[in-house]
């Protein structure tokens, strides 16, 4: 009698397990709230912020170099010293860095445009500096332009920006205007520098990336 009860209990458990499995197979799958690859953001906020800062840094460096070649060193000596003291590369990006770089970029662009409008003469070594700086200028514009869509994509989903939100918002606000102003000046700068005997072959090749 005892053996019969044990067998009956085992049969009951087996049937119950089978029924629960069948019901589970018929239920819809629950959505995953984990960090799976399908729900991961397309860009990392910290990485995009760092890349944007580095692109702005490179462009501002090129601008101050070009302004210096055109005779604007005295006007920008403080900004150039500040650039030299700034950290770029793998250092984390900060909003203060972006604000500083934007200020330097705008001042340098103003100086460049002023000297070009004055048709300032270039002496020997300054022609080489102008050629190298103009190439870096265009490459900096191209690199910055490529980052705009990534920044705007992150800004459309504020949660994805994380702790880098202030830096990304500041960059997203200023970078399109800097790129637009810089790109629109390239034709006039090519014309001016070319008339002074500056070798612009590399810079013009790099300008293909601007799509203008």
- Globally, the shape reads globular
What fraction, in percent, of the residue positions are helical? over 70%
Low-confidence parts: 1-42
Secondary-structure element sequence? HHHHHHHH
Tally of contiguous helical segments: 8
Rg, please? 29 Å
Mind explaining what this structure looks like?
With 212 residues, this protein is mainly α. It has one domain. The protein has 8 helices and no strands. Helix 3 runs antiparallel to helix 4 and helix 5 packs antiparallel against helix 7. The N and C termini lie far apart (93 Å). 35% of the residues are buried. The N terminus is likely disordered.
Descriptors for this entry?
single chain; 212 residues; mainly alpha; 8 helices; 75% helix; globular; disordered N terminus
Question: What is the topology?
Answer:
Elements (H helix, E strand, L loop, with lengths): L1 H25 L18 H25 L3 H13 L9 H23 L6 H32 L2 H4 L3 H31 L5 H6 L6
Helix pairs in contact: 2-3, 2-4, 2-5, 2-7, 3-4, 4-7, 5-7
Task: Provide a concise account of the structure shown.
This protein has helices at 2-26, 45-69, 73-85, 95-117, 124-155, 158-161, 165-195, 201-206. The protein is mainly alpha-helical.
């Amino acid at each position: 009698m005892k053996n019969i009860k044990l067998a009956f209990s085992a049969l009951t458990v087996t049937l119950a397990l089978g029924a629960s499995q069948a019901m589970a197979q018929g239920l819809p799958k629950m959505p995953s709230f984990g960090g799976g690859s399908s729900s991961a953001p397309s860009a990392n906020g910290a990485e995009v912020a760092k890349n944007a800062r580095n692109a702005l840094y490179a462009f501002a460096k090129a601008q101050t170099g070009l302004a210096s070649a055109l005779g604007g060193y005295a006007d920008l000596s403080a900004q150039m010293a500040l650039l030299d003291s700034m950290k770029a590369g793998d250092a984390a990006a900060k909003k203060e860095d972006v604000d500083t770089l934007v200020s330097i970029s705008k001042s340098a662009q103003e100086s460049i445009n002023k000297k070009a409008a004055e048709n300032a003469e270039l002496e020997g070594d300054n022609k080489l500096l102008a050629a190298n700086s103009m190439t870096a200028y265009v490459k900096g514009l191209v690199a910055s332009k490529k980052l705009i869509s990534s920044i705007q994509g992150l800004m459309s989903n504020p949660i994805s920006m994380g702790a880098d939100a202030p830096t990304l918002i500041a960059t997203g606000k200023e970078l399109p205007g800097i790129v637009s102003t810089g790109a629109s000046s390239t034709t006039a700068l090519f014309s001016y520098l070319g008339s002074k005997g500056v070798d612009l072959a590399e810079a013009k090749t790099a300008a293909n990336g601007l799509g203008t």
